[in-house]
Amino acid sequence: MVTGPAPPRPGLLVPVRRHGLRRGPVRRDRHRRNGHGGVGYLLKDRVLQVGDFVEAMERVAGGGCVIDPEVVRHLLTRRRSPLARLTPREREVLGLMAEGRFNTAITRLLMISEKVVGKHINSIFTKLDLPADNTDDHRRVRAVLTFLHDGPDT
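-> structure tokens emitted (154 positions)
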């Protein structure tokens, strides 16, 4: 048996669809490279540009890293939770809404007027981009789902 340095591993070039960016292709990649070979992420339409694709393959084969500029742009502009836009009081109101409380119960628990509760709720809808003219969704339910999805401590 001959021992010596392991042969270089081939690199990994992952074509990514634009809509796949929402799921975070780089973070969720199941192929861990362990420091061997290169890695690259290109949008599929970039793969169709033969020159860019060949250059990326050569870089990856040489152990380098290639990341499509749009993938980088997406990672750098990744959206914060919409709940981060809410004030602490609005998060408190939304938390009570998530508990299934009616506005009257929220007024009693927070010791504020029903008019103020209504203003907080309208502000929550605005900040969570839940327009009043959307007849397909129940804004209160959508706001609570956002709260439950993103967590109360966001």
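Residues 1-10, 20-35 have pLDDT under 50 and may be disordered.
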